[in-house]
Amino acid sequence: MKEKLLFFSVKHPLLLILLFAIALKLVAAIFTGGYMAEDQYFNYYRVPMSWLSNPWIVYPTRLILGAFSLLIITLGYRIVKIIADKTTALEVALLLACLWSMPYVSVHPLPQVVCLPFLLYGALLIVKQDHLLKDKEIDKFHRTSYIIAGFCLGLGFAVYYQSLIFYIGVLIALLVLKNWKGALMTIIGYVIAVLLTQTITDLIIWHRPFVNMIGFFKNSGIYLFNNNHQWMFESTSLVVTMLYLVVLPLSVMLLFGFFRVWRKYILLFMPTFMLLLFYTVFPNRLWIYTYTLIPTFIITGFVGWKEYYKNSAFWTRNRWLSVTLYALFAVINTIVFFMSFSSDFFTK
After folding, report:
1. For residue 243, what pLDDT band results from cuts at 50, 70 and 90?
2. What tens digit of pLDDT does each residue of 288-336 get?
3. DSSP code of residue 98
4. Interatomic CA distance for residues 284 and 1, integer angstroms
5. Phi first, then psi: what are they for 249, rounded to 5°?
6. 1-20 burial, b if ≥16 CB within 10 A, otherwise e?
7. Which of 95, 46, 47 is nearest to 72 (CA)?
8. If we measure between CA atoms, which residue out of 223, 210, 224 comes closest to residue 43?
9. Which of 198, 179, 116 minimizes the C-alpha distance to 152?
10. Whole-model pTM?
């Protein structure tokens, strides 16, 4: 049996990680307390949330959301495999699978998390095209890929409006790289997605387009205007939040790697940094609001850290220290994972 498991792990490492992630999500789906999205996210949320509060519907919904969130792991793996190597890609996939908060947030109807597969797939398409063009594996601009990428990013916006900041970061990165055609094609795809998702439903229910979107931004503007005096004090909590979501000592390593490779991986760095900047200027008391930036932060930060680690004379001489740090992270992560069974843990 041991030999078969070892063979399976060598032959199908990503599948093994996904099976591990499924096990964690099942535990979270069964034992975690309630954590439902708040009304301010969607005008349409009150009726669906009343359905999802039904005990017979809660668990099937959690299982569906958990299964959908597996895409976060596979897409993270595919992105890292393009910009780095297979080993690093598997390590990132494992982090996205076992990070203490991921199983829990992924089985709840949270738009900050549900939007992630759309955002990551859009980022994947753009990163892939950029990589192919730089390596001259393709000899012409593939506009369809950018349109589809923009469309996926637009779907992410339809799920979670604040993901607009993520797309703005992608657009800035394309412009910095002087990929004017790519920027234009993503705009076209994004607009198509927004028009389809923000008009049809609104016309059916309200007989007017963009009611939901306008209502969200209007309410958000009122909130920010009434609370703008608090941001200078509260913005410092974002650093604590990052250390909280990605526990020590890994969080410090990722933060170092993230800023170290900002120019090299600007297509991933810029949308993440824009979200980081946004949540710094406009913080919120609930850490879940910042979760949209976590996967790309882990992807970019870990790749940056591994590049530094491989070329560092200090770490070459002190391999034992890195093993110790990873072990410490694993212990803390496991402890926090089980602490999270508390029903009110997420709202602290």
Report:
1. low
2. 778 899 999 999 999 999 999 999 889 889 888 989 999 999 998 888 8
3. H
4. 49
5. -90, 0
6. eeeeeeeeeeeebbebbbee
7. 95
8. 210
9. 116
10. 0.88
Between CA 70 and CA 280 the distance in angstroms is 29
Rounded Cα gap, residues 45 and 338, in angstroms: 30
Is the per-residue pLDDT at 114 higher than 50? yes
Q: What distance in Å separates the CA atoms of residue 197 and residue 66, rounded to the nearest whole number?
A: 23
* Contact criterion met (CB below 8 Å) for 141 and 314: no
Is the CB of residue 276 less than 8 Å from the CB of residue 291? no
**DSSP letter at 64?**
H
**DSSP 3-state assignment of 302?**
helix
Cβ burial of 151 (10 Å; 0-12, 13-18, 19+) is buried
Residues 6+ apart with CB under 8 A from 44: 201, 205, 212
Q: What is the DSSP string of 253-297?
A: HHHHHHHHTTTTTHHHHHHHHHHHHHHHHS--SSGGGGGGGHHHH
Within the chain, what is the greatest distance between any pair of CA atoms?
68
In SS3 terms, 160-182 reads as: CHHHHHHHHHHHHHHHHCCCHHH
Radius of gyration over every alpha carbon of the chain, rounded to an integer in angstroms: 20
Predicted local confidence at residue 119, as pLDDT: 97
User: How far is it, in rounded angstroms, from Cα 316 to Cα 309?
Assistant: 8
Confidence at 200, pLDDT banded by 50, 70, 90 = confident
- Looking at this protein, which amino acid is placed at residue 28? A
Using the predicted structure, report yes or no on whether residue 32 has a pLDDT greater than 90.
no
Question: Domain residues of the chain, as ranges?
Answer: 15-347
Query: Which residue is it, tokens 């650093």?
Result: 239
184 within 8 A of 148, measured Cβ to Cβ: no
